[in-house]
Amino acid sequence: IAAKSLMLNDRMNMHHDSIGREELLGAPVALKHVPLIAVGRREISTADGTGVLFLESQEAQAVARWRRGEFLEVERQFARGWRAALSTRWLADLRVSVPDRRPRTLAEARDLAMNYVDRDGSRFATLRMALDRFSIPVSQRDEIKRRWRSTGGPSLRAFAPFAAHVLTIDTFFSLSLGADLISDKRPSNYVDIGYLYYPPFCMVFTSNDHLHESVVPLFLQPGQVFIKGVDLKADLTALNDYYSKLPESVLVKGAARFARYPPIDGAFLTADLWDQLMSSTWRKDASKVPPP
User: Fold this and answer.
1) Residue from 221, 254, 267, 242 nearest 110 by CA
2) How many CB atoms neighbour CB 291 within 10 A?
3) Residues with Cβ < 8 Å from 91, sequence gap 6 or more?
4) Residue 54 to residues 16, 60, 139: CA-CA distances in angstroms?
């Protein structure tokens, strides 16, 4: 399983690689169901006191360019190469079968994957697999091992929870392919499964993808929900219609003033999600005049 799981490491250079690498090197990663904001901030002094400046990320800058129809040539070349690689990806190479414990359902495949990563008798072997998975340089491995031993040689999930999550997803995918629970005839499954690295940083996971609908709920914890993309889009359309009816004198103040909260009247999915996931006082707070 370890060898097959490592093959997932050659996919796009996505953020989960750098997050897992930094975590293993000692930077704590809080899995609190909120976005992990990139480094690049500093305290600043203002007339009202001290604030924190979050610089615009490269991803946000790219999205802004794309909205304007501007695409860098390097982005076009990357997209072409990525599509070509995806079209030739052979998922059969990632299949792993466990003859005496062949999972019959996706839930069983998840349980097998979690048990594999959390197995007590192989904690050091699992740590080494994580070092390989996240391409930790040889020069830094001894220090990580020393830090791991100094904390009592805990499970990977206790030592580096996000790295353990990624290994669990990799193993789950390989086991599911091997048991024919996920098709190896559809190359896009290779990319789609990568989105499962990110639920630790969100409250709501939304998608119209059938694979996501089947597997994402298996990895969600209390305080997280899966919403079909079509349902969210319909609600966003309803919200747009609702706010578009406001007077122009209100609209010109910006959404941060008139839409700090979902509407407290009417039936909106977004409001239901706030009831489920946010502060129990948000409806009361929404009735107050927002501060400047």
Assistant:
1) 221
2) 6
3) 177, 183, 184, 185, 186, 187, 189, 190
4) 20, 12, 32
Are 30 and 162 in contact by the 8 Å Cβ rule? The answer is no
| Alpha carbons 157 and 10: distance in angstroms, whole number | 23
State what percent of residues in the chain have pLDDT above 90.
57
Q: Which helix (H) or strand (E) holds 155?
A: none
Sign of CA dihedral 198, 203, 208, 212: positive
| Residue 26 DSSP one-character state | T
183 — alpha (psi -120 to 50), left (phi > 0) or beta? beta
The gap from C-alpha 268 to its chain's centroid, in whole angstroms, comes to: 25
CB atoms within 10 A of CB 147: 13
* Cα(37)–Cα(30) distance, integer angstroms: 11
Spatial separation of the C-alpha atoms in residues 17 and 34, rounded to whole Å? 18
- Quote the pLDDT of residue 41: 63
Comparing CA positions, the residue from 192, 273, 262, 260 lying closest to residue 231 is 273
List, for residues 169-189, the tens digit of each pLDDT value: 999 999 999 999 998 888 788
271 or 70: which leads in pLDDT: 271
For 87, which DSSP code? Answer: H
Q: Which two tokens stand for residue 69?
A: 């129809």
pLDDT digits (tens, 9 = 90+) for 252-266: 988 888 898 999 988
The more confident residue out of 156 and 187 is: 156
**In the predicted structure, residue 76 carries a pLDDT above the cut 70:** yes
- Please name which of 99, 80, 107, 52 lies closest in space to residue 219, comparing C-alpha atoms: 107
Structure tokens at 238: 């309803």
Task: Specify the residue for token string 């839930």.
Answer: 107
Amino acid identity at 75: E
